[in-house]
Amino acid sequence: MFLSSLEPRTARTTAEVVKCIAWPLAVLTVLHRVVVKAVNGFRTDDFTPVYNAALAFLNRQPVYTANFQWVDPHYLYPPSGTLLISPIAVIDPERSRWLFIIANAVAILIALYLLLRMFGLRLDSPVAPLLVLGAFSSETVTNTLVFTNINGLVLLGEIAFLALLLKRRDLWAGAALGLTFAVKPILAPLLLLPLVRGQWKVFLTAAGVPLALTLIAWPLSVDAWQFVEHTVPYLLESRDYFNSAIVGNGMYYGLPTWLIILLRGALAVMVAASVWLLYRYCRHDELFFVCTTAGVVLGASFLLGSLGQMYYSMMLFPLLMTVLLPNSVMRNWPAWLAVYGFLSYDSWLSGRWVETGRAAEYMKTTFGWSLLLIVVFAVLLDRYLAARREGRLGDGIEPSHLLPTTKAESEPQPTRT
């Protein structure tokens, strides 16, 4: 009797089968990424320069002393970010790094839960373990933990912002975004959403939080102005290493300047057209509009800006999650070919085909981001042209298979004798 009570219940439905398979895989993948891969570390260490800067800040020593001639990770956070991360230097570097890894892992898990709730799902949904498994199997989450940077906390800020924006909690939404701005402005393109939705209060806290933190941090830093003179010019430059943006790979492979400008310009036109179509015809479907537009503008900033790194791709999770919506632009195989490019942890470096493997490895992220933006544009344009051809633009550009059938079509036709 006692042993039978411990026997796992046999799954009876497809959803239960998915959960009983995916949850063990998800839990063990999370543990492996946090306890083994992240603690071991590999190749790049984003944490040490951050820890050293925090330690210097607490000891009233110069922070912005990086030599940008080296390709090692540099400390690039503004004084407001230095203030926020300074507590990590209160304890020794090893334990501090472990706590930072745990904080990012927990932040990612909370962000994934909030993402589930945004789409009306709970932890008992079969989507939950698949989402966790997919996220922690990806390059973006794995290397965020292994390199030990702050992107997991930034992802939490992004998802919190989107969730609060949809609930019209504007001041709190702006505060969530503002906290990420205090460290890095990677989510700045998301300000387009409250702008076009008329949620003006977002801007008060989105600007007020980093400004207040800067006012506190500036007099506490002995070289705050060096961030402006020394670090900002470097941030505005395009580098040809560890850079998956078009300009970075273009410089690495020696493409002519005119071709780099042409590629960026062509994709910028597609992005602008996609955003216009989303705003003009889809903004009343709030969840679809907010998550899809967020993915488009962030993907464009990674690809078309001066710096795009593969582990930024976790910020595109809301767009990928729209695949659950019937009108999603992600319900096609080219979109997921693109996702493989920027999320897969696979390495394409080859000992047999050295040059080809290196090109595939270095270009896969750029290819993935580019293809994703092209797919979104193509899907939206096709829907627009179909709706115009059928004379129903006034009702939006929903896919034709989602349109309600007419009464004549739904009623059975009389048979002729």
TrEMBL record:
It is an enzyme of class 2 (transferase). It is a multi-pass membrane protein. Keywords: Cell membrane, Glycosyltransferase, Membrane, Transferase, Transmembrane, Transmembrane helix. Residues 397-417 are annotated as: Disordered. One of its GO terms (molecular function) is glycosyltransferase activity. InterPro entries: GT87 (IPR018584). The keyword Glycosyltransferase applies. It holds the Pfam family GT87. The chain crosses the membrane at residues 98-116, 145-166, 172-195, 258-279, 286-304, 366-385. It is found in: Cell membrane. The keyword Transit peptide does not apply. Its EC number is 2.4.-.-. It comes from the Bacteria. Belongs to the glycosyltransferase 87 family. This is Glycosyltransferase family 87 protein. It comes from Rhodococcus chondri.
